[in-house]
Design goal:
alpha+beta, Aminopeptidase, eight-stranded mixed β-sheet, globular
Length: about 200
C-alpha cells in the first residue's frame, strides 16, 4: 500500500511536505556530496549517510526549525527549504533553500517554494521579518532574493572560503509589509511581479 504524503503547502508548480527520513535520506546525502550543489552552501564538506541522518534527527526535533521537502506538482522531490531559528518573541526567522536536482535549477521552482514558506512565516506564525545570507558570488540566489523584495542590509567581509580565496557574506532581510503585495498577486494569479532592483557591486 502506497504511503500517503502529507502536504504542508501547495502552489501552482510545487508543494512542500515534511521531510521523511525513510524515503529522503539517501537522496539528500547525494545532494550534499555533490560539489556543484554545495558550492554556495555554508556546509560544503562531504557528508556520510550517518552524519546526514543525525542532521535529519536534529532538524526535525527542534521546535524553532521547520525543514521541508520541495516537490514538483507530480511528486518528485527536487530540493529542501527551511525556516530556521524562529524567535516568536522577536518575530524573526531565517530561511534557506536548496534545489538538489540540477535539472530544475533556474526554472522558478525555488522561488515558488520560497513564496509558500514566506506565507507560513508571515501569515501562520505572524513573523514580522525573515533574514538570510548569500555568498557574494552566488548571483542567482541574490537575484532571486532581491526579486522577492529582500533588501541588502550589510555584509561580512571575507567570511567564506571557496575556490582558493575568501568571499564576502551578503546579509539580506525581508519585512512582511514588503512581501504582502507579492503574496496578494500570487494568490490571485499564481504568479508575481518581481520587485525592481539593482544588483549591488562587491569587491571580487
Amino acid at each position: 500500500m502506497r504511503k500517503e504524503r502529507i502536504v504542508f503547502a501547495r502552489g501552482r508548480r510545487v508543494y512542500l511536505r515534511p521531510l521523511d527520513k525513510a524515503t529522503d535520506l539517501e537522496r539528500c546525502t547525494r545532494w550534499t556530496n555533490d560539489p556543484e550543489v554545495t558550492r554556495y552552501l555554508a556546509r560544503c564538506l562531504p557528508m556520510t549517510l550517518l552524519a546526514e541522518e543525525n542532521w535529519f534527527d536534529k532538524q526535525v526535533g527542534r521546535e524553532n526549525d521547520f525543514p521541508l521537502a520541495i516537490c514538483t506538482s507530480k511528486g518528485r522531490h527536487i530540493g529542501n527549504i527551511g525556516l530556521h531559528q524562529v524567535d516568536m518573541r522577536l518575530g524573526v526567522g531565517t530561511t534557506g533553500t536548496l534545489i538538489g536536482e540540477k535539472a530544475f535549477w533556474g526554472k522558478g521552482y525555488g522561488s515558488e517554494a520560497k513564496m509558500l514558506m514566506l506565507a507560513f512565516a508571515f501569515r501562520t506564525l505572524s513573523l514580522r521579518k525573515v533574514y538570510s545570507d548569500v555568498i557574494a558570488f552566488n548571483e542567482r540566489s541574490l537575484r532571486y532574493s532581491l526579486g522577492m523584495g529582500h533588501k541588502v542590509v550589510g555584509r561580512r567581509r571575507d567570511h567564506w572560503y571557496r575556490e582558493g580565496r575568501y568571499w564576502d557574506d551578503i546579509l539580506l532581510e525581508l519585512f512582511r509589509a514588503d512581501w504582502e503585495p507579492l503574496w496578494a498577486e500570487y494568490e490571485a494569479t499564481s504568479r508575481w511581479t518581481k520587485v525592481p532592483y539593482e544588483m549591488p557591486v562587491f569587491e571580487r
